[in-house]
Design brief:
Helix content: over 70%
CATH topology: ABC transporter involved in vitamin B12 uptake, BtuC
Number of domains: 1
Structural class: mainly alpha
Oligomer: single chain
Distance between the termini: 43 Å
Strand content: under 5%
Order of helices and strands: HHHHHHEHEEHHHHEHHH
Radius of gyration: 21 Å
Strand order of the largest sheet: 1-4
Number of strands: 4
CATH class: Mainly Alpha
Number of helices: 14
CATH architecture: Orthogonal Bundle
């Protein structure tokens, strides 16, 4: 394999190579780290970030950004908690309520981004504060305790697999099928690759953009519910700052900030990789204050790889353009 081919291979599979290296590094230092129980706990702890990251992958594919996911993770489960407490809808009804609330919040983001043509960064930064402020108003900054049934749901298993992992796997599978097998998935990639070309091809670019923001918020809402099911309570700091973990997981999984590149499976690996690093640093006894630095280094490496990949893609496109021969 030539040097150029090896570089292309490394850039295409950077996430998986980094993941394998991290597992090997921590596994050699702490053998128990690679035990089935330890790996299962890592995936379980990564599940809620992974669910939200799969959703935001759709947005990143269209060259967008969604900074409101952490606040959606806070407000949507809160509304579900009110429905469960005051309307007696049960856990199933709570899940539906959370997802519907997420869809509504995503539609609000989409309205400002698509209809009013406001930059996604500005819109979602604003709704980040708006959604969290709404939740704080509803709770008066007090902790909200959920009924025992939601914790029982979080502790339940399907064929021996913890429920958070089951939900994570289902979300990833559905997203993979949508992106790889449906017209909407192909249109999402097309819009991210070249919005103007997609528009000329007859794709309703605005409609695609609106739908990806709704998908992102619905996934964030479900992610918040999954986390609530594991801890049973919600406070004013719930979900705060999680938008950065979510975006980092998607980018680490191969989703490009420049649009048009990314997969649901890659995002699953990215989310699991972040949690693996966090757990590995604890296993190996790394200084508590050094852990964010180490994690930041891994995320920076992912962004650097994304930038290098984008640079090579632009160079490849330039090489494929040939000036038309002059007519005699």
């Amino acid at each position: 394999m030539t040097g150029s081919a090896l570089t292309r291979f490394a850039l295409r599979n950077a996430t998986f190579l980094i993941f394998a290296a991290v597992l090997l590094l921590f596994g050699l230092q702490t053998p128990g780290f690679l035990s089935p129980e330890s790996l299962g706990n890592i995936v379980k702890q990564a599940s809620f970030i992974g669910i939200a990251a799969v959703g935001i992958t759709f947005v990143l594919l269209t060259r967008g950004i969604d900074l409101s996911v952490g606040s959606v993770m806070y407000l949507a489960p809160l509304l579900a908690g009110f429905a469960m407490r005051d309307l007696g809808v049960g856990v199933a009804g709570g899940v539906v309520t959370a997802v519907l609330a997420g869809l509504a919040m995503g539609a609000l983001n989409a309205f400002f981004v698509v209809r009013l043509n406001i930059a996604p960064f500005i819109v979602t930064l604003s709704t980040l504060f708006f959604f969290r402020g709404a939740g704080t108003l509803l709770t008066s900054s007090r902790q909200f305790d959920f009924d025992r049934e939601i914790v029982d749901f979080g502790l339940s298993k399907v064929a021996g697999v913890p429920m958070p992992i089951v939900v994570f796997a289902l979300v990833a599978l559905v997203a993979h099928v949508v992106l790889s097998r449906t017209t909407f998935g192909r249109q999402t990639y097309a819009v991210g690759a070249d919005p103007e070309a997609a528009r000329k091809a007859g794709i309703r670019v605005g409609w695609v953009q609106a739908r990806v923001y709704m998908v992102s918020s619905a996934a964030a809402a479900l992610a918040g519910f999954v986390l609530i099911a594991q801890i049973g309570r919600l406070d004013v700091a719930f979900g705060e700052g999680r938008e950065f973990d979510v975006i980092a997981a998607a980018v680490l999984g191969g989703a490009s900030l420049f649009g048009g590149i990314g997969t649901a499976i890659g995002t699953v690996v990215g989310a699991t990789l972040i949690q693996t690093v966090k757990t590995g640093l604890v296993f190996t006894g790394v200084n508590l204050y050094l852990q964010p630095i180490a994690l930041g280094g891994v995320i920076f490496l992912a962004v650097l790889i994304d930038s290098l990949r984008a640079t090579r893609l632009r160079a490849a496109r330039r090489r494929t353009i040939r000036p038309s021969s002059a007519t005699p």
